Amino acid sequence: MISFQVITLFPELFREFSANGLMRRAVGEGNICLETIQLRDFAINAQGQVDDSPYGGGSGMVLRPEPAKRAIETAKSKDPSAKVILLTPRGKPLKQKVLHELADHCRAGNGLIFLCPRYEGVDERIAETLVDEEISIGDYIVMGGELPSMVVIEGVARLLPGVLGNSESIEEESFERDRLEYPQYTKPQEFEGNAVPDVLLSGNHAAINAWRTERSGRDTWMRRPDLPRQAPKPAVEICAALVHYPVVDKRGDLITSSITTIDLHDISRSAKTYGLSKLYIVHPVRALRVLSEKINDHWSGGFGLEYNPNRSEALEILSIVPNIDDMILDIETRTGILPELVTTSAKQTSGSCSVDDYRAALALVEKPQVIVFGTGWGLASEVLERADRHLEPLYGPTDYNHLSVRSAAAIMFDRLFGEVKGA
Ligand SMILES: C[S@@+](CC[C@H](N)C(=O)[O-])C[C@H]1O[C@@H](n2cnc3c(N)ncnc32)[C@H](O)[C@@H]1O
After folding, report:
1. Cβ of 318: how many Cβ atoms within 10 Å?
2. Is 142 touching ligand 1 by the criterion CB < 6 Å?
3. Which atom of ligand 1 sits closest to the CA of residue 138?
4. pLDDT tens digit at each of 423 positions of the chain
5. Which of 38, 156, 265, 374 is 20 to 30 A away from residue 71, measured at CA?
C-alpha cells in the first residue's frame, strides 16, 4: 500500500477528498493510504502558535521551522524512505512527467509526505534542509498547500497499479506524449444542430485513428505553442514573396529596389527549411529578372550545382515574376484556388494579426497563402491594402526594429512553422 501523509492545518479538507470517486475506491481497496498530520499539534506554545511575522518586514505570516520540522520528522518516522514535498509557487512546475517520476518512486514502495503551508509559506530553512522536492501546480496563487497537494496526490494515485483499471486510457491522454488528446464525443449523435464527426460513426478503426491523430496534432499546434509540437501539414500551398516593387524608401516615396543576391539565396534556404512551397521574387525590371535567372541557373544547373548541390534544392522553389498579379495568377493556375495575401511590416498597424494567431490559423486555412515581405523601407500601402491578413511586426526587447528582410523572413518562418522537439 502506498502511503500519502499530508501535514496541514486543515485536515478536514482531506476527508471528503478521500471519501469520493476513484480516490475512495483506491483507499477502500488498500491501493493507497491517505493520512493527515495536524500541524498545530507541533505548535511552539500552548496557544497553538505555528507561524510568525517575516524577517525583513512585509505583510503576512510565515510558518515557523520548528513545528514544520517536528511534523516532518513524525511523518518520516512512519515512512523513512518517503519523499518530502513542499507545495509552493516557487517550486518546479507540475507536469505529467513529474507525476510519473513520483509514481515510480511510489511503485518502488516509498511514500510521499506533503507539507502544506498557508499565508506567506514556510521558513526557507525547511525547504533547504528537509524538503526533497518543491512543486508548484501553476503560475497562480491559491490560499494554501492543501489543494495543490490534492492535485499531486490525485495525479500520482491514478498512475499507480489498480487505481484506474484501464492503463490503455492513460497512454492516450493529454501530455502523455507531449500532445493534447483528440476531442471526445458521446450520445446523442446530434445535439442542438451539431453532429458528431462522421468518421467516428464509420466503424473504420484505421480512419478513426487517423482522424484522432490529426486532431490531436492540430489542436496541440493551435492551443499549446509551449508543448513540443509538429507543424500540421496544411492542405494548401504556403508560399512567400519578396517584393521589390511597389515598396517605399525612407521618405515614404514609391520606389523599385534592386535585387540582392544574398536575399535570394538566404530566403529560399529558409523557405525550403520551413517547408514553404515557393518563394516568389517580384521585380518589374526585365534585365534584373534575367540576371537573377542567370544566377539561379548557375546554382541549379551550372558549376554551382556541382560545387554545392543542396543549394540548388533550395533555389528550385524560386520563381521570378514581374508583379504581384502575375504571382497570384501563377498560384491560382497551379492550385485552382485564389491565394490569400499575408503582408508583413516593421511598423505597428491597427487590425494586424498576431503571429501566434496566424500560426494557429494555418492549421485550418483552405486557400493557398503567400507571406509577403517588402524590401527597401517596406511594402507600399497599395500592397498592404489588398492584404487578406496583415501580421504584427517582430519585436525584440529594444526600440531598435530594423531587421534585414532575410532575417525577418527567417524569424517569421520559425515562429510560424518551427517545430519543437520533445526532450
Ligand atoms: C498565499 S500562498 C503564498 C504565496 C507566496 N507569498 C508567493 O508569492 O510565492 C500560501 C501557500 O499556498 C500554497 N500555494 C499557493 N499557490 C500555489 C501554487 N501555484 N502551487 C503550489 N502551492 C501553492 C503554497 O503552499 C503557499 O505557501
Report:
1. 23
2. yes
3. 19
4. 999 999 999 999 999 999 999 999 999 999 999 999 999 999 999 999 999 999 999 999 999 999 999 999 999 999 999 999 999 999 999 999 999 999 999 999 999 999 999 999 999 999 999 999 999 999 999 999 999 999 999 999 999 998 887 765 788 889 988 889 999 999 999 999 999 999 999 999 999 999 999 999 889 988 988 887 777 778 899 999 999 999 999 999 999 999 999 999 999 999 999 999 999 999 999 998 898 888 888 777 777 777 777 778 888 999 999 999 999 999 999 999 999 999 999 998 889 999 999 998 998 899 999 999 999 999 999 999 999 999 999 999 999 989 999 999 999 999 999 987 765
5. 156
Q: Which fold has domain 2-168?
A: Alpha/beta knot (3.40.1280)
Alpha-carbon distance of 4 to 35, in angstroms, equals 6
Q: How far is the CA of 235 from the centre of ligand 1 (A)?
A: 46
Cα of first residue to Cα of last residue in the chain, in angstroms, is 32
For ligand 1, whether the C-beta of 93 sits within 6 Å is: no
Intervals of CATH 3.40.1280.10 along the chain: 2-168, 238-417
Superfamily classification of domain 238-417: SPOUT methyltransferase, trefoil knot domain (3.40.1280.10)
Q: Which residues contact 186 (CB under 8 A, 6 or more apart)?
A: none
Please indicate whether residue 144, judged by its CB atom, sits closer than 6 Å to ligand 1.
yes
pTM exceeds cut of 0.85: no
